[in-house]
Amino acid sequence: xxxxxPESTGITDYKTKLQEYAQSDVRKSVKYVLLNExxxxxxxxxxxxxxxxxxxxxxxxxxxxxxxxxxAARKALEILVK
Length: 82
Fold this sequence. Notes:
By secondary structure, this protein is of the alpha+beta class. It contains 3 helices and 3 strands, in the order H-H-E-E-E-H. Strands 1-2-3 form a 3-stranded antiparallel sheet.
């Protein structure tokens, strides 16, 4: 089983897990889009959306884009495994 509850498996790289899930179905593609950036330039907060075949599956925030993407991927996985 590729997808299990992300919390119980100790997954830390949600982006990789989401990519693996998408690649298990050749019709699916994953892309990350910057939805919003706020805060001062020395302490920005990024909001990224993760799309699976143009369907928004998760939104995450972080102090850098990579962290926001990980959080978005985690939320997408939580939706997919329910």
